[in-house]
């Protein structure tokens, strides 16, 4: 199987520990990826968090719920793991959380592999998810810091 790697970088107006904690909490992943509609069965360990996520793929009025097992490996400034989806699509991911002046930079890196014929579609979907996640993180952290009317 061929694999492809790609990354996005997002700068957030929050300290690194707050961003890390947000990414390490499975409940925050609902809506963080536009595909994730539910998380359940959260199991916390000293250096990892395991949970079941439900990804919803829609095509017009039809949808398919893809149930996946996710592990967030918690390191020093990194959260990583990999997911195997139906069809043989495998995504190894890592978030690198680093302080920058005025906030935190998050590098969201994917290594995706898929069978021939599925790779282009899977990469396209993963890049859309990655870009949406960056926008949603910015929205969430800016909303936390905005004065309420």
From TrEMBL:
Stored Pfam families: Polyketide_cyc2
Record-given protein name: Polyketide cyclase/dehydrase/lipid transport protein
Organism of derivation: Umezawaea tangerina
Xref: CDD domains: SRPBCC
InterPro entries according to UniProt: Polyketide_cyclase/dehydratase (IPR019587), START-like_dom_sf (IPR023393)
Chain ranges passing through the membrane: none
């Amino acid at each position: 199987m061929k694999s492809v790697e790609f990354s996005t970088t997002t700068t957030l107006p929050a300290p690194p520990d707050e961003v890390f904690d947000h990414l390490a909490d499975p409940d925050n992943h609902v809506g963080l990826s536009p595909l994730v509609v539910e998380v359940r069965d959260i199991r916390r360990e000293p250096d990892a968090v395991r949970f079941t996520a439900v990804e919803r793929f829609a095509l017009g009025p039809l949808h398919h719920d893809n149930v996946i097992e996710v592990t967030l490996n918690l390191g020093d400034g990194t959260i990583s793991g990999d997911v195997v989806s139906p069809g043989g699509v495998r995504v190894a991911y890592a978030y690198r959380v680093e302080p920058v002046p005025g906030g935190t930079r998050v590098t969201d890196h994917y290594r995706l592999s898929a069978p021939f014929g599925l790779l282009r579609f899977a990469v396209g979907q993963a890049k859309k998810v990655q870009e949406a996640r960056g926008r949603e993180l910015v929205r969430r952290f800016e909303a936390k810091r905005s004065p309420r009317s």
